[in-house]
Design a protein that fits this description.
With 285 residues, this protein is of the alpha/beta class. The protein has 12 helices and 9 strands.
């Protein structure tokens, strides 16, 4: 059905289903299809549960709501796991991120403390319609410079406000904290309300570079973790913060959860997350 996952989604039959929704971390092109964490989780739970993955690179939290509606309509899952990374929050809000109109976003309703949903629209900004992006994407030199050598990362360190952590500019994102909190609360509430008979669990990635450098206490994105903890408790949904488990594991084993050339989880990272989610499910059945 078009998802990067080594299971035929039409062959589920009557098994209980766990649906894992996310962006490129769940699409997981960085590892073999049978090494991503939803499939590893399936190996621990099958045949009691079937596990399907729904990952779309570039999606944000607002798009996860849209994807959850698709999953509800076509698969009727018993459990929803929503995988969240740090750039998912601001990129859900149209006023802060006007790109990627082919994903759903939310916008402040004028004069009100409320949000309206902006449906996805087919747009020429997508790579398959953009001749320049298509040309650059075919260039091995461009990919080498911007992916392997991380030229863009080097340059942004010298731009005003160019400091990055956990794939966001911390100071810029923090300046929108109130709007991000309200939008996140809206999206979590909608996901919960539309899946009232299901278990809903959010999994938030750790600020891994801060863990590796031993600077976790001074991380500028930890407020997002506290925000998610409060919102998930308020909306009565499950919450797994990967920060402390990853911190303890790195201190013990000194093994990175990603490769040196890509910030996405490597095979070890996917296995680690699968183990953490499994333990959470096992302890809260």
């Amino acid at each position: 059905m078009g998802w990067n996952y080594p299971v035929d989604y039409s062959a589920r039959k009557d098994k209980k289903l766990i649906a894992v929704i996310g962006d490129s971390f769940i699409e997981a092109f960085q590892v073999d299809a049978d090494k991503n964490y939803p499939f590893l989780l399936r190996g621990k739970l099958y045949p009691d549960y079937e596990v399907y993955a729904f990952g779309a690179s570039g999606a944000a939290l607002s798009q996860y709501l849209h994807m959850a509606r698709y999953v509800d309509r076509h698969f009727d899952p018993d459990v929803l796991i929503i995988n969240v990374v740090h750039n998912d929050f601001a990129q859900s809000i149209l006023e802060f991120y006007s790109q990627k109109s082919h994903f759903m976003r939310v916008s402040h309703e004028k004069g009100k403390h409320a949000f309206v949903e902006i449906p996805p629209v087919l747009s020429g900004e997508q790579e398959r319609f953009n001749k320049i992006k298509r040309l650059l994407g075919r260039s091995s030199l461009f990919r080498y410079l911007f992916i392997n050598l991380r030229i863009a990362d080097m340059l942004t360190k010298h731009w005003p406000g160019g400091y990055f952590e956990a794939n966001v500019q911390p100071e810029e994102v923090r300046s929108h904290e109130k709007a991000i909190y309200e939008a996140t609360d809206y999206l979590v509430r909608k996901i919960k309300e539309e899946n009232i008979s299901r278990r809903v669990i959010f999994v938030l990635d750790a600020p891994r570079q801060a863990i590796y450098s031993g600077s976790l206490n001074s991380s500028r994105v930890l407020w997002m973790h506290e925000m998610m903890r409060k919102i998930c408790a308020k909306r009565d949904v499950g919450y797994i913060d990967l920060t402390e488990p990853m911190k303890l594991d790195f201190a013990k084993n000194n093994k990175r959860f990603d490769s040196e050339i890509d910030n996405h989880w490597n095979a070890y990272g996917h296995k680690f997350v699968a183990d953490i989610v499994y333990e959470y499910l096992k302890g809260r059945k």
